[in-house]
Here is the input.
Amino acid sequence: MSVAPPIDWYRWHDDYDELESSSSHRLAAVQERIAAELDRGARTVVSVAAGQSRDLLPLLIRHPRGRSVRALVVESDERNAEFAEGAAEGAGLTGLEVVTGDAGVSDVYLGHAPADLVLVCGLFEHVGPADRRRTTDALARLVAPGGSVVWAVQATALEGADVLDATSAGIRADLAAAGFAADGPLTVGPAEFVVGTERRTGAALPLEAGTRLFTWR
Here is the structure.
């Protein structure tokens, strides 16, 4: 049985530069959701396993309120973190902090939670069901009451459209169990990706240090 080569997470972002790629279409859908939350008044943002922050960074640069937003970007790949940090510095985004570290441990979010908006885009397809539930439970502590989580999953990391549909349904069910309500319909790229927004309906909960949310597989 052959073993797939490890993914180069820096080069992985190249697909965003292809106008008609699944990644670029998903990016546009995610950015539309983020823009809606900024329009609603979100002032604090946390991006989990953010990569190069291709979704959030451009919006903070061009949105009328973007430079007043306080944002935390967490990414384990040093090259991607350096890309995001360099782009933020070049654009003068003083409110954005890039942390190179394990996004699966609660400690990196202390001092930044709860946030008005949390981004979990491209994570859930890379963790198992138990870690997904732990992460959605943690989101109840990362997202402020009335705040939202924007999430996305992509078929290229899964095994077909049926798995994509099942994963998306599972995410919404887990978020509902954690105290979130679906905020509008899903954005679905046929057999490609799913993007959703869920709003926090429960009371504020404290974030505990030393908690493992997920392990990337």
Summary: Residues 85 and 129 are 32 Å apart (CA to CA).
